[in-house]
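Example protein
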Amino acid sequence: MKKALAVAAAAATLLSAAPAQAATPDPVRAVRQQFVAGHGVKFSETLITESKGDKEKFVQISGTYAFGPSGVVASEGTFRERLTKDKTTLHFRTVGRRLYLKGDNLPEGKTWMRVDDDAFKTPLTLQPVDILRLPQLKGLLSHTTSVRNGAYRGSVTAKQARELGGDRAPAGYDFRLSTDSSGLPTHLRTQEIADRTTVSVYDDTRYSAWGHKVTITDPPDHEVIDMDDIADSTFDETLEEILDLADNAVAAGRR
């Protein structure tokens, strides 16, 4: 009888015990596990201004990142801006530190223009932090003030932004990083803290197809011409002037 009562008591304890809480997935670990050669992730980034419910897209960048064992090793996509009268569209490819721009006005037989490393000072992104660089992702998450349903929210001061090492770190920014059930980022939205006018200017990036197979290589050498070798073409503009459009978008949105 005593044995039967003991078994019943143990069973009752097990049945009434609160279910164990699943551990929250670590986004840093989840992203690190994606760093496999031949795999990648798709991205779509938009610089948006919003005023009284009306939204306007100034810059859009979309494409694919290719991974290696240590992170991003290549990328390919399209950069579109709506600031200027001509509304520039650039098709780009990066392999290591080499940047290629595709164009229709290149010399006959050439499809890609190779930009030297010194000109490639500004990455083709507007985000103040690169979450595919694990130290920056870890640093960003350290400033989280709330987590709900896989969404991390917080703020980064100007000093903290510089410490994170973002290439385009502003005066400071609020962020919301959404992740899926495995901890992989799906959506990053940042907004400068200094932007407190009636017009909101924010950068919105979405990530999808984590782990899909992708191969991005240098274009065939016979299709490439160096930027310094081009004299009279629309690509005679410096890359810095083109990428300055991104910064102008933020300023224009505040006016």
Summary: The longest helix spans residues 239-254. The helical segments are 2-16, 27-32, 134-141, 158-164, 239-254. The first strand starts at residue 39 and ends at 51. The chain is about 20% helix and 40% strand.
